[in-house]
């Protein structure tokens, strides 16, 4: 879906405009097969911008739609993004359930294909919930790609490598989130200068897209 490109390039207002345009006939009663995809992406953007109510509404709707879809790629994508949303909203039970569903599919050798793009958000959610070892182990059964490499870097605690890989892929939002995780880890280790550099890069992106939730996290870390 073309809405993914402006999202990854940091053009979130354009992504939201395209999503709203796509969903207008859907909201008027004309169903579309990939409504789950744009709803899950909008949920993620709303969460980043601090609109938890709108985010959860879109996530719940995306999950409802994908439940009726036999496509495993749809299930991977929506479960991954919604796990990220729910973890951010402290709905940890639901996030854990979705991560578990992804792991079960991976262990059954269900191929990832395009849904690999949901792995960075899934990795961030799994980090919050202590599920990275299980996720990484399940991915060992699958053909490596840069998105899987990001999960492995997360599991190794090498968030700078994860961010650099995401930068090479061209996914700016997930790169910024990985740099925020890197800053947190470096600050705990007392490596303040390095933490500050990662934080500077992260907050610059988050401010550019109006991601208020993450800006607040960055500012809280900077003030410690």
Give the topology.
Blueprint: H1 4-9, H2 12-27, H3 35-48, H4 52-66, H5 72-88, H6 92-107, H7 119-129, H8 132-139, H9 146-155, H10 159-169, H11 172-188, H12 192-208, H13 212-222
Written description of the protein model:
The chain has 224 residues and is an all-alpha fold. The chain folds into two domains: 1-151, Alpha Horseshoe (Serine Threonine Protein Phosphatase 5, Tetratricopeptide repeat); 157-224. It has 13 helices and no strands. Helix 2 (12-27) crosses helix 3 (35-48), helix 4 (52-66) packs antiparallel against helix 5 (72-88) and helix 11 packs parallel to helix 13 (212-222). The longest helix has 17 residues, at 72-88. 44% of the residues are buried. The mean pLDDT is 95.
User: What is the count of distinct domains?
Assistant: 2
**CA-to-CA gap between the ends?**
40 Å
Backbone CA Rg: 17 Å
Shape: globular
Strand content: under 5%
In the CATH scheme, the class of the largest domain would be Mainly Alpha
Low-confidence stretches are none
Q: In the CATH hierarchy, what is the superfamily of the largest domain?
A: Tetratricopeptide repeat domain
Task: Report the total helices.
Answer: 13
Which CATH-level-2 architecture of the largest domain? Alpha Horseshoe
Features:
224 residues; mainly alpha; Serine Threonine Protein Phosphatase 5, Tetratricopeptide repeat; 13 helices; 75% helix
What's the short version?
This protein has about 220 residues and is mostly helical.
